[in-house]
Design brief:
With 174 residues, the chain is of the alpha+beta class. Helix content is 41%, strand content 13%. It has 9 helices and 4 strands, in the order ααβββααααβααα. A 4-stranded antiparallel beta sheet has the order 1-2-3-4, with helices on both faces.
Amino acid sequence: MNETELDDVETLADLADLAREASDEEETVLVFIEQEDAWFAVVRVDGEEDPRIFVSDGAAAARSAYGEIVLTDELVGRSPGDELDDLDNLVAELDDDSSDGSGSASDDDDDDDSPVTGADGVPAGPLGDTEVLTEFGISAKALLAMSGEGAVPGDALSEIAESLGCGEVLEAVR
């Protein structure tokens, strides 16, 4: 696949269908998505099974058009309608803040131990199936190391492709 083909993809289902069309029979297809060295994703499509997804940085992906394809509700840990619930909660908090006369939010939020989130409440850092490449010889630990702070997504995908024996193919489509 190339970037032109991905321009017509709007959902994960569209991407999975495109991957299935590119394969012979029921072969496993791996789709690599890289966004300007900010994040990468590996989408694994095994026949008619649901795609398995790993994203190196969810918050970075949320700022990208291609991120919309891979950041499913299930992957980011939200259920359909959460956006409306979040908006209702924000309105309720604003009403509470204005009714106490202070006009400022309480300092209790500073003690929150919840994960760091970025755009649209998507958690920062790696998301998804860390074992998506295990049977190809890339452990979950190795995949997470390629996604850690200071890692370069383009280098990570090159390393993955080399391990899979398709480094030249990846370089050709870049």
